[in-house]
Fold these 2 entries.
Entry 1:
Amino acid sequence: VVLILVFLITEALPVLGQVGLLPFFTDPSWHPAESLYNFTPMLWGTLFVTAGAMVVATPLGILSAVFCQYYAPSSIAGLYRRLIELLAGMPSVVYGFWGLVELVPLIGRFQPPGASLLAGIAILTLMILPTIALTADASFAKVAPEYLKGAAALGLSRWATVRGVVFPAAKSGLFTGLILGTGRAIGETMAVLMVCGNVVQIPKSLFEPMRTLTANIALEMAYAMGNHRSALFVSGLLLMAIILVLVAIAEMISKEGIYE
């Protein structure tokens, strides 16, 4: 991690030394050939698509883990876990290809062009759902059986036990899973690049195309030179900073312990 951070800083220094950090958030637009380096539309695009995916994937992932642990027969729960593990191991380009061929045209029928923030949210939801579901499932499995027996002795219903006993006991694991899912969503490149339209703008609706920071790096690094290339490393440094903050938060939460 230290070597990567040093590499990013070294490559970003040329443009930072010439224009400073502020123009990356205040320039009128992103046109590196004209020495305009505004990251703001792509940063907002990254945050929008990540937040949207988390809003959808979080309840689905946690509730599916509740179903597996406390409601489903063991055979169905085992099959569901295998399917979730399969989704977790699927390459991102497969998700992106499916989204490009099926999802984007479907959205385009109702609201052209189809490649949009909504398509990115849908694809990222599928990609981070396994992370959240598997982490929640593991957290629920570690809840002490004595807690469940005590709740049963008090006459609590199954859902009341889950809501009042299991969720508080597994809170650190649940939060860690959410942060890991957020980190994956922020860092995802190929699938988002394929379905979001790659227009550098702040999307005003779910149906407008947009571009994320990671997609911008993938699209432009092959031909970027000079300050343009260095500016892309600045965006990589920004992503690295966001991920490091998320990792630090996850570490703090995990140290609380699952029963605290």
Entry 2:
Amino acid sequence: MKSLYVCQLLFPLLVLGKFTPEDLLSAPRRGEAVPNRSGSHAVFHLSSYSFDTHSPSSSWNLLNLHNGDTTVLFSDPTVQEMVWLDDESLLYINGTNSDTKGGSELWIARRSRPGEGYKAASLPAYVSNLKTVSPSEKSVSFVVSALAYPNGTIYNSESAPKKLDTGLIYESLFVRHWDAYDKPEKSSLFSGVLSLDGDKFRLEKEIKNLVAGADGTIETPIAPFGGADDFDISPDGQTVAFVSKTPYLNPANHTQVLVYIVPFDGSSKPEPINLEGKDTSGDPLPKGAASFPKFSPNGDALAYLQMYINGYESDQNIVFVYRMDSSSITALWKPWDRSPGGLLWSGDGNTIYLTAESYGRVRVFEAHIDDDTPKEITAEGNIAAMHLLPSGDFLISRNSLTSSIGYFAFNPSSKRFKTLLLPTDVDLQLADLSKITVEDFSFDGAETKVHGFIVKPSDFDSSKKTRLAFLIHGGPQGAWTDSWSTRWNPVLFAEAGYITVAVNPTGSTGYGQAFTDAIQNQWGGLPYIDLAKSMEHLESTEEYNYIDFGKAVALGASYGGYMINYIQGMPLGKKFQALVCHDGSFASQNIYSTDELYFPQHEFNGTLWDDPENYSKWSPSAHIKNWGTPQFVIHNALDFRLPISEGLSVFHILQSLGIPSKFLTFPDENHWVLKPENGLVWHREVLEWINRWTEVRANRRTAKTAKAQTALKAQDKL
């Protein structure tokens, strides 16, 4: 029997462009800029990683909104989160506790005195997602999230009883979710009050669990991605609204989310406002996922987003407004064919601003409560966050394909952006990205026009042939947008010497709900046709003669990884010299090993036992006999969304067939590769693979020949 061995990762010399993986992963990463009350300054978080010292760094910074100057406020990594209390004061979480191991603290600082502050509260466990309101100058009402035992007691991992065994027993779902096994401790909300004592704020009494008295076991923020947008505090500090999955429904099979309201002091149990009933137009209330509860400025209304269909995570979000006095719920702008992801009230409470994907960009829309439909007010880039300033302008945090998050003042009347901080002006790693050309293009797809992006290298020369990197996005209900990414960045592939094409086929978001919905039970159908037609369009259009189609590669992750495995056995796969599959599925019949079962049950329009043919119909495993293109398979051990057995199956088959192939796994990563050192390996190995198969114009798919097998064995022995 052939011995098994672990092959050390080798990094051959790569011919890279000006923008390298090191640049991408070491460049500063900025969070949203949050303004103070007067709009004079904003606070933002900045983090970076050094591959020289192999260490991260982070800081909290002030941005002068008049001139764009920045000042470091704190460079201590224990400062976890920070919010404004007024124009001058800020409240922040210290992730350590000098008195309680495993605890945390709340500190107060002043913007005029960087690096200084005082402790206002000692908390018995680690907390996060800090939110505040100040009902008066003498008190601050705050809410944080923390893990809690089933009885509501806050959970401290350091003081918790230690088990002598590692067994985990389940009689209900989830067993594991995203990248962790489900535990009894759930995320809860805790409220507290800081009161002015002399010239300093102090914690009035112990923080109180606001969700412990609810009917059933509820969790908020909702795992695995929930955060501070899952709850809100009324302006008077008397009420908290939050979202949580419906407690009596199996969370793995249902997406229904309820919106709860609860007194800030926890004097009564949380009550759902949208469990049953009808809206003001007489339509039944929706049964899908709800999100983003936000109180109006005077606290008389609560806006939130909700989908109608239970079990469909990519249904259209509709804006609903709950009136606190009458308990009535009104659905707004139902005919609007976009799905908002965030909302913001105007100062007078008569207008709501929304962010939503639209034709490859996340834009801001505005609508008066009585308007028929929201109107687009921004058109450029990807709006990551927005805040209203007293002047009537917006403070916008925005990124794009050629820039990480920068800060802008946006005037809604003139539709003009004033630059406050532009990363390509201040970050050395991004300095040359302004030379990158990004183009929109469209073509006739399977049933309708399909949109995509073409990204050209900074040294692009139309008189020369340039290799092609064809990117396929995940989701499948997702989209390539004009936005920045440190994981799948089209610009990085462009600067490595490729024309980078990113298509949004059937199922993509931002092109109307019908286009998104059309992928149901069509995984290898309409989207595959769209992708094939995009290649046909590029090949047959004289405008794109600069693309060297003899040196084309295709890459995809998640659903994009599924599609890579699918086209491996289809005619489209023969157009590429090499393929890269990251965390993709191989056998659709195995998809019940995933965590969120509602996903395959919606995508394949039924269950595996009632509609098995729907699962086998588009399975890549049905076309193994047609495989032949060299393929790089990446699959991580902590990916519980698509278990590693899917990637191993693909690699085992490729190796058994003698097809040139490579496998990469990270035992400590999930569906994504998030750690900088691992990310560097990922990018280097991916670029090495696609460069290897596009350096020489040759038919690389003589994969089953003895020559290919000999070369593969020789490579393995290195």
